[in-house]
Amino acid sequence: MATAGSGNETYIETSHEALSTLDEPVSQTLLRDAKAIWRKLVVVVCPPLSNDRELRDWDLWGPLILCLILAIILATSAPPNMTGLVFSAVFVLVWVGSAVVTLNAKFLGSTISFFQTVCVMGYCIAPICFGALIDLFIPFFWLKLMFSGVVWAWACWASLRFFRGTTKAEKEMLVIYPVALFYLFMTWMVLVGV
């Protein structure tokens, strides 16, 4: 590796093989991305058994897939004339809600990047997707309500482990409260079947 500079510009020459993945087969790229998504899902599903650092390497593929799964589940349980509206509403609310919670954290001085926060918010929808799928088969409202409470707590627990320590201690609750409120809203949508 060599560096060359002229004036204010510095160029770093590196070996092409070390940085480029353009030569690898598409199947290898997809497999690598699928494994990364799986590792991040394990962080959310089993927080004590996993490494929190995994979510710091952000991507938006997993949140996109989970958002689509949630939107499809809720759209299929909606009345036939409302499926398109429910799908688009869930899709937009997940992404806009994640962005609003992220901006709140950034305005309060959070040290994590915008896309890291959106990634965490998206991956932590996994318990809610699981809850939406199970709720399709539970006929009793009170049982659905109890199960939805567990799913909400699970989503909050998984995400709060990431958000703790990202701001000053006196502002931490101002960051955490909207996260819990976002997941409460998503869980409520699952509970009432939109």
What does this structure look like?
By secondary structure, the chain is mainly alpha-helical. The chain has one domain. It contains 8 helices and 2 strands. The chain has helices spanning about 15-20, 25-45, 60-75, 85-105, 115-125, 125-135, 140-165, 170-190, and strands at about 1-5, 10-15. A two-stranded antiparallel sheet has the order 1-2. A hairpin with a 2-residue loop joins β1 and β2 (about 10-15). α4 crosses α5 (about 115-125), α4 (about 85-105) runs antiparallel to α8 (about 170-190) and α6 (about 125-135) packs antiparallel against α7. The protein is globular, with a radius of gyration of 20 Å.
What keywords describe this structure?
single chain, 194 residues, mainly alpha, two-stranded antiparallel ribbon, 8 helices, globular
Number of domains: 1
Tell how many strands the DSSP assignment holds.
2
Strand portion: 5-15%
Residue runs with pLDDT of under 50 for 5 or more positions: 8-18
Tell me the Rg in angstroms: 20 Å
Q: Classify the helix fraction into a percent range.
A: 55-70%
Task: Give the helix/strand class.
Answer: mainly alpha
Q: What is the general shape?
A: globular
How far apart the termini lie comes to: 57 Å
Q: Tell me the series of helices and strands, N- to C-terminal.
A: EEHHHHHHHH
Please give the order of strands in the largest beta sheet.
1-2
Q: Profile the largest sheet.
A: 2 strands, antiparallel
Task: Report the mean per-residue pLDDT as an integer.
Answer: 84
- What's the tally of helices? 8
